[in-house]
Design goal:
With 87 residues, the protein is of the alpha+beta class. It contains 2 helices and 3 strands; from the N terminus they run βββαα. It is globular and about 40 Å long.
Length: 87
């Protein structure tokens, strides 16, 4: 556990069976793209500039929101002082 709350590791990601979310952000569908070639967010980022998140719809947006929520939850957990068990 890191004691410095401002410490940022070289990379941060949340990886699940079907998806990988990179914090800066990138989102990959590991089931259909195991080589992580096609960032599901890249086209939206390229087309919409600073407003790219608003252009994401449907399943990709749902996955992105869930991955971000869980990423935040785990990051907060990692900085707590008490021990915990992840089930």
């Amino acid at each position: 556990m890191h004691t410095d709350r401002d410490f940022i590791p070289a990379s941060e990601a949340l990886v699940r069976k079907d998806n990988k979310y990179m914090y800066w952000p990138e989102l990959f569908d590991l089931r259909n793209d195991p080589g992580e070639v096609h960032d599901l967010l890249k086209q939206s980022k390229r087309n919409k500039g600073s407003n790219w998140l608003g252009s994401i719809t449907g399943e990709v947006r749902d996955v992105l929101e869930e991955m971000r929520r869980r990423f935040k939850e785990l990051k907060e957990w990692a900085h707590r002082d008490e021990e915990a068990v992840i089930l």
